[in-house]
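Appendix C. Worked example: HD-GYP domain-containing protein
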Amino acid sequence: MIKKIGVRELRVGMFIHDFSCHWMDHPFARSRLMLTSEDEIRKIIDAGIHEVYIDTSKGLDAAHAPTAEEARRDLEKELVAIAGREPAPVIRVSVADELARAAQIRNQAHQLVRTVMHDARLGKAIELDQVEPVVQNITESILRNPGALTGLLRIKNKDDYTFLHSVSVCTLLVAFCRSSGMDAELTRQAGLGGLLHDTGKALVPDEVLNKPGRLTDEEFEIIRRHPKDGYDILLKTPGVGEIPLDITLHHHERMDGSGYPDKLPADKISTMAQMAAIVDVYDAITADRCYHKGMPAAEALRKIFEWSKFHFNPQQVQSFMRCVGIYPVGTLVLLESGRLGVVTEPHETNLLSPKVNVFFSTKSNTYIKPVQVDLSKPLGMGGGDKIQSYQSAEKWRVDPMKFFVLPA
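Step 2, the predicted output written as structure tokens:
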């Protein structure tokens, strides 16, 4: 049985099933292991980990700890409450109408980040006049329909992850700022910071950046230098503002002081850096990498919400969840009817009832004629169904993004 416990309850002989944190935030070569010494427990505590999941079938039990299922049910109740508090951003055009423009913007931004990284590696200055128009294009696409570009950015080639991750962080951060009511200039500065936040990775050797396995302690230290390296690069860029510098330097800081490079306490981390930290981890854990499989976006949100007790600002996490939806655009969901569909747009007032393109029957295990279902409407008006759960595309061997936009 899988149970959730605080790290102060850990004992030698327990089997760690999950560290309940982003894989870069724990110091072990594996995410599942038997605890064999007090030193290992101390290492977990010192890493800023507060809760873990243990497997009682493989090690010692914690009698009064909640099961993973109990913890999940409690979490879902909290999410349902959050979903109804504030409306989602207004959609101005449909996903279908925005998709072609979004694809061009994605490709333009991807190439720009690749160029910025290449120039930074060669010691060349970053040209802000090349970066700012791309951020403007991303912002305008988000204003028309945030789901089109964010949906496209769910698809990342493993070899292009470093570049597309920066585009995703920019896009999500702009959407986050807009849904939070921030003005145009703050949003623009945040977008610049998002697009440039990982510039310091240009100085990380490729064999470390793309290593297909757990990093050594020495390699971790190289990776952990990238916020300061990126900050130093941006300092040499004429006209760069304080917000991009702050995001670049502090997007790996954590509210409990366990982050890097400065181990800042919560009251020393700016609101924008707190927002960037959430977006950065969300995109990282949903992406496929050479060393780990990305998780579904809905599951990633639940993980971040769980971790927000210690690592992230809980109010900002809830705001981000309202921004992207409890079931983010691109999420594969199972409906009560037994159909599978891909979420294409959030509902403006009910995040539990988005628009979904259904395309597969789990009852017959076959593809069906694709159709859009608006879950906020009753039966007979294009609705009449409910989300039962989010699903793994691998489990059903389907590609939901093929049905992101239905044929005319």
